[in-house]
Write a structure and sequence with these properties.
This protein is an alpha/beta fold. It is about 30% helix and about 25% strand. The strands form 3 sheets. A 9-stranded mixed beta sheet has the order 2-1-3-4-9-8-7-5-6, with helices on both faces. The chain has a 5-stranded parallel beta sheet with strand order 12-11-10-13-14, with helices on both faces. Strands 15, 16, 17 and 18 form a 4-stranded mixed beta sheet that branches. Helix 6 links the parallel strand 11 and strand 12. Helix 5 crosses helix 10, helix 7 packs antiparallel against helix 8 and helix 12 packs antiparallel against helix 13.
């Protein structure tokens, strides 16, 4: 059993970034909602309290009983977590005269504080809060300040607790990872032994125990997540894993044939099904993004159910669900984080399918999935593929779906992805795709007036998809791609580039 850090989620949209920073240190951690505090067993080394959209003064603010934690485990409160610790300790937390958001720099720090060991005196940090800590209460010492925030960090000596008003987990806190390491390694005493190889060994052993002699069926998507999940399950139970790959008519150009070949090279038992017409029928005249996702999900279940009935001895359904799927679809285990949009592989199965679900990657972020895939020796051309949404091009065609629109977008997308590869830019981009907009515009080709469609190109940099920035690609390269799409894809006369970041936008348009 690995030691663990428990992260209590108070509703922050960046709680998962705390987990990422801890995981990057090869330390296992779990996120639990503040109102469902787990049993603190012998493997627990410390507890981190996340931020929150609430104020400690609001009636609906989270006020958990921390008596089983404080004084028994080291505790780090971040933003709201720091305010909560101060408030519960009889300190003073007041509403700020203005919201403090953005970059700040430490102007003083306590060099003897173990939390700030090795941190430069002018370290950049990221503020995002509406309340200010005036006093953290008795038995506390201020350990750092910024120009505008007197109590940017404090230490409570009687219970080995620390509070940071800023967010060390975000990218803009330049020494944030070092602070988190100081906490989880030096203060909590965690061993840095949670590695991809250890995950593979432990997960395969756990799957053997969980699945016994049962048979698993699994719908594959061609993406990294389902592939890694399938290889893990296959390593545990061999050919008792029966895979199904459905061509929903919304895949990228030539993807069905290419992916089937890759799966068979991995030794997986895969049945390919062309169900394009069934999906197109289910999507006819559907324009709302959520309704499209639901229609695609239902059509997949119908196709999958029909095929699964041929496997009468199957007791389990394998899925490639990963942590961001869970976090974005529903607040983690009933916590307060807000739903952004539904995901096709989260939310369970219809009762009539009578299958139990096995999700070996459910607690991993995307970059962790790739590292596990490398430990499994899955080829890099599979692992390094950009993420592709489960609903496929169905959510990259804004408006209704037709076979003609799909073919048009496949052709444009193929030029876009191929161009990135040819220019050596594919690996510099985390995810890229083309989007067909419901926009016509006037153009001129030769001496003729055209009135044709618009394609938007999207490319972002990220590590896990929870936050993303648009990719700064060379202008000459973009001009070449635009020119090729307009010249070679009949029906398109305008190409635009999406320069929105996440947040406030999402990576996909729907």
């Amino acid at each position: 059993m690995h030691q663990r850090i428990v992260i209590l989620d108070f509703g922050s949209q960046v709680t998962q970034l705390i987990a990422r920073r801890v995981r990057e240190l090869n330390i296992y951690c779990e996120i639990h909602p503040w109102n469902k505090i787990p049993v603190m067993d012998a493997q627990t080394c410390g507890v981190i309290l996340s931020g929150s959209p609430f104020s400690v003064h609001q009636p609906e603010a989270a006020m958990p009983d921390l008596s089983a934690i404080l004084g028994k485990f080291p505790v780090l409160g971040i933003c709201y977590g720091a305010q909560l610790l101060a408030h519960l300790n009889g300190g003073e937390v007041i509403r700020s005269t203005h919201r403090e958001y953005g970059r700040a720099h430490l102007v003083s720090r306590n060099e003897t504080s173990p939390l700030l060991k090795g941190i430069p005196s002018n370290s950049q940090v990221w503020m995002s809060h509406g309340d200010t800590i005036v006093s953290a209460g008795p038995n506390t010492t201020v350990i750092c300040s910024t120009e505008d925030v007197a109590v940017a960090g404090y230490e409570r000596h009687d219970v080995n607790a620390f509070g940071l008003q800023f967010h060390p987990e975000v990218f803009h806190s330049t020494d944030g990872t070092a602070m988190i390491k100081n906490f989880v390694v030096d203060i909590c005493g965690c061993h840095q032994d949670w590695t991809p190889n250890s995950f593979v060994d432990e997960t395969v052993n756990a799957l053997k125990q969980q699945l016994g002699e049962d048979t698993v069926i699994m719908g594959l998507s061609g993406g990294v997540d389902s592939t890694v999940a399938a290889v893990l399950i296959h390593r545990a139970i061999g050919d008792r894993l029966q895979c199904i790959f459905v061509d929903n008519g919304l895949l990228r150009k030539n993807e069905f044939q290419d992916v089937m070949h890759s799966y068979r090279d991995l030794g997986l038992q895969v049945t390919g099904i062309n169900a394009s017409e069934q999906f197109y029928s289910a999507l006819r005249d559907v324009t709302d993004p959520e309704l499209k996702r639901k229609a695609i999900g239902k059509a997949f279940i119908d196709v999958f159910d029909a095929e699964s009935k041929k496997h009468t001895n199957a007791q389990w359904l394998g899925q490639g669900t990963i942590y961001p799927d869970v976090i974005e679809s529903v607040s983690h285990s009933g916590g307060p984080s807000q739903t952004i949009k539904s995901h096709h592989n989260v939310g369970g199965l219809p009762d009539y399918m009578k299958l139990k679900v096995v999700e070996p990657l459910r607690l991993l972020f995307k970059d962790e999935v790739r590292r596990v895939g490398r430990a499994l020796e899955i080829p890099s051309f599979i692992l390094d593929r950009h993420p592709f949404p489960g609903p496929g091009l169905g959510i990259r065609i804004l408006g209704d779906i037709t076979p003609e629109k799909v073919q048009l977008l496949q052709d444009a997308d193929d030029i876009w992805i191929r161009s990135l590869r040819d220019a050596g830019l594919y690996s510099e981009v985390w995810q890229a795709g083309a989007i067909l907009l419901p926009v016509y515009s006037v153009g001129v080709m030769g001496d003729e007036r055209t009135y044709e469609r618009t394609v938007a190109l999207r490319a972002v940099t990220s590590t896990d998809g929870m936050t993303a920035d648009w990719s700064r690609l060379p202008h000459d390269f973009m001009a070449k791609v635009s020119n090729e799409i307009i010249n070679k894809v009949k029906g398109v006369n305008r190409v635009v580039y999406d320069i929105s970041s996440k947040p406030p936008a999402t990576i996909e348009w729907e």
